[in-house]
Amino acid sequence: MRRTLLAIIALLSCHCVSFAQQQAKDQDGPPPLNFAPPPLTPEQQAEVVKYRTYLSSFIGGQIDMAEVGALVKEAGGMLQVNSVRFKIRIGPSGQLLSRRIEMSCGYEPLDAVFLSALDRAKPFAPPPAFSPSPAEEVDATFTIVSAAAPPPQ
């Protein structure tokens, strides 16, 4: 009786494993396609950093710091942070495809100054052709810090 019971348990466990394997095989289908771009080489990473630095200084050069200083004073306690963070998309020939504020400073007129500086700065130099984003675009997120920020109290 004991041998029969062990044989039945062994048979059931083999059948369960086989059934589970078959179910997994039926549900798997073809292996998923990998659309991830190959990793960037150190030289390419350096080019991306160089391009983002260029964007930051190029756009920063369009900012009227006297106006920023006046708005920071005007904002007083409404200023939540001393920076504005943007997300921009740039096409392969340097055209601005889209822009949006990722993180506001908390004072809309100051955000508007930074957005208008961004609009004045375009068109940009073309991004590196091996961009880590889709081939036709490059994402650049950067922060512009107000040099006229009020001193901490």
In short:
The chain is an alpha+beta fold. Helix content is 46%, strand content 16%.
Helices, strands, pairings?
Blueprint: H1 2-28, H2 42-60, H3 65-75, E1 83-90, E2 96-103, H4 108-121, E3 138-145
Antiparallel strand pairs: 1-2, 1-3
Main location: membrane
Subcellular location: Membrane
Keywords: Membrane, Signal, Transmembrane, Transmembrane helix
Report on this structure.
By secondary structure, this protein is of the alpha+beta class. The chain has a domain of 105 residues: Fusion Protein Consisting Of Minor Coat Protein, Glycine Rich Linker, Tola, And A His Tag, Chain: A, Domain 2. Helices cover 46% and strands 16% of the residues. It is built from 4 helices and 3 strands. It has a 3-stranded antiparallel sheet, covered by helices on one side. Strand 1 and strand 2 form a beta hairpin. The longest helix is centred in the N-terminal third of the chain and has 27 residues. It is elongated and about 60 Å long. The protein starts with a helix and ends in an 8-residue tail after the last strand. The N terminus and C terminus are likely disordered.
